[in-house]
Design goal:
40% of the residues lie in helices and 28% in strands. The protein contains 3 helices and 7 strands, in the order E-H-H-E-E-E-E-E-E-H. The strands form 2 sheets. Strands 1-2-3-4 form a 4-stranded antiparallel β-sheet, covered by helices on one side. Strands 5-6-7 form a 3-stranded antiparallel β-sheet, covered by helices on one side. A hairpin with a 4-residue loop joins strand 6 and strand 7. The chain starts with 14 loop residues before the first strand and ends with a helix.
Length: 165
């Protein structure tokens, strides 16, 4: 896959379709606080029980467990800052991938000769989505859950067909 910062020239055609794809996270900030409070209380209680039994190192390990769980959730939330913008007009298809650090890569395709392809699994539905032309192929939307991937693929297919008319 090659990244291109591409100017689309005088493309002033109106957009047929525009979407921002973002990773799904089922646990919001309030739920995260409640979960971490519960885990913290459990770790502290278990640590105190072992401390009272004379096995004092366990208290430190329970604190370490808590910190590792906290770090894992924070890393997961940090990765959720990534997103992809997709635009379709009668002249072009533009895919902009933005990493969690804010680094953006743009992939511009001329509408003519660009195909939207999906891989499907009988039980899961859409497993992969990509834009292709003769010169390159770019996968996107990998972080969407299966239901969102299916809905997006249907909408995007219709938009591509509309733009080519």
């Amino acid at each position: 896959m090659s990244a291109h910062n591409v100017s689309l020239g005088n493309d002033t055609s109106p957009l047929v379709f525009a979407a921002r794809l973002t990773p799904y996270r089922s646990l919001g900030p309030k739920g995260f606080r409640i979960l971490m409070t519960g885990i913290g209380l459990i770790c502290f209680t278990v640590g105190i029980v072992f401390l009272a039994a004379g096995v004092w190192p366990i208290l430190g390990f329970m604190g370490l467990d808590f910190l590792l769980i906290y770090w894992a959730f924070k890393a997961n939330y940090r990765s959720a800052r990534a997103y992809e913008d997709v635009e379709v007009s009668r002249q072009h298809v533009l895919l902009r991938k933005v990493s969690p650090t804010g680094k953006a890569r743009e992939f511009a395709f001329q509408q003519f000769g660009t195909r939207f392809e999906v891989d499907r699994h009988d039980e899961i539905g859409v497993t992969k989505m990509r834009l292709t032309n003769r010169k390159r192929m770019v996968e996107f939307g990998y972080f969407l859950n299966p239901a969102d991937r299916e809905t997006f693929a249907d909408s995007f297919s219709r938009a591509m067909a509309t733009a080519k008319r």
